[in-house]
Each structure stands twice: as C-alpha cells, then as structure tokens.
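dude i think i finally got it to work??
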Amino acid sequence: MNKFLLIIFLFINLKANLIANPNILARTGILIDYHSDEILHEFDPDIQIYPASMTKIMTAIVAFDLLKKEKLSLDDQFTISENAWRLSQAGYSSMFIMINDQVSVENLLKGIIIASGNDACVALAEGIAGSEENFADMMNEKAGEIGMTSTNFTNSSGINDPDNISTVRDIALMSKYLIKNYPIYYELFAEKTFTWDRTGGEPIKQGNRNPLLYKNVGVDGVKTGYLAVEKYSLASSMKKKDRRLIAVASGFETKNTRSSESLKLLNWGYRNTNTFEISKKGKTFYELDTWLGKKNIFGDT
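look at this
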C-alpha cells in the first residue's frame, strides 16, 4: 500500500470511529431502533443496575394489562393504607395521598407516571394484588413474558432494595413493550403536569420528572430514576416522523448530564443511522414481465 492510500485508509477509519462512538458519560447504556430492534449503540448494556424509579414502567404495564383485559377500570377506587401513606411522609417522591382516601386507578397511575409517587405505587399494588409482595410476583411474571432475563423486581416503586435489579437492555425491552402494546395509555408518560386535589390541604401540582419532555424535540417518555448507589438514570423515547428510538442509560453523575447525555445519544442515533422500508407484506414494490407464466407480470397484485 503506498503512502497516499494509507493516509486515505487511516482517515476513513478515523471518521468511522468518530461516528461509531457518541462517548456518553454514563456507566451503561443502549440505543435501539424501535421498529427494527436494531441496536444502534451500546456500552456495557448487560451489567447489573438498580433501576430505581424506572421500575415504575413495569408497575404501569401490569395495570395497563389488566385495563386492556377489562379486569380493571380507570374509575375503580382503592383505599389508601397506612403502609402506602407512610411513603408519602418518608422524604421520597410522592403523590401525597392520605390514609383511608379513596383514590381512582386513573389518579394513582398519574401519580406514579407523572409525579413518580412511591406512595401511589404501593396503593396501586395493594389495590390490585392485596400486597406489594404479591404485586412484585405479577411484575416478575410479566418480565419473564417480555423476555427480561436479567431482571428481578421486589417492589413496585424501585426504592432501596439490593434485590431489585435489572439491566439497560431489559429496561429498553420493557419500554418498547409498553409503547407497542399500550399506545393510548402510553400517552400518560408525555403529560407534563399532574394536579392532585389532596385531602386536607390545597391541591398539589407536580411536573413530570422527565427533563426531555420540556425540550420539544419529539421525546414522549419514558421514566427517570435515581438512587444514591446508582446515581441518575433515564429511559427515554423520541419520535421523529415515522421513526422512533429508545435510549436507556444509567450511572449519570448529575441531573444535568442525565438530560444532556440522553439527548445527545438520541440525536446521535438520528444523525448517524437510518432505516429503510425494503418490503411490506401484501404490497409489491417491483414488477417483471414473465414468459409462459400464470400471469403476464410477476409481482402483479
């Protein structure tokens, strides 16, 4: 190889390496194309993480599944236990429900998805399954059905438990399942505010904790997370025209890097990759003349 060709070769490979690595400042992450399931970028996607409030995606899925099967209604009312109320007083993110309140499934879901209320998670879990432990069994059963092979749920909220574990690959798989199977209910994840007309005080208005919803870039979900041992995490999904990407990353050092680096990963995917429709069932993209065939044109529908 002469010197000129060697320089061209090195330049092309340098450019390819720059495109191939967006250099995301997180411990683990993955970016997938929603429609093709193609992994566009990943780094340590199978190391164990504590999913924190990203756990609430599965809490919502279990409820959505029952709603879809008409075994649960958005208007159903659940009585708030002391166990659920206690979480609203413990300094965690809360919906601020009160003992013996009668709260609808719809409001509890909004409290979980928008306000990230741990108290609402327990209330919903107890209302559906009798106890949070029983509900966790339902979560794990659904995780197995989806194919989340590296996940174990022990509670409905994701708060501190060393056995509540997952991976960014599994969280991405769960996020796709949510978007694909419950498109109407998924719209809750894009709502920016929720006002709870609480008992014994003024209504509380809380904003969605997903920072990318406020940037008007096409992000419509899904869920943030934070634990001191895991740092910051985010499962996010962006839709542009007919294309959707899902990104999940964990181990961001700050809230600001969680936001900026997640957006960087999604934008990198749109800038550097694309999908093309090659064929569609029942639709012909080409025609060929035939000789002595049953039809004059092959591919004629």
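The chain is about 35% helix and 20% strand.
im so relieved honestly
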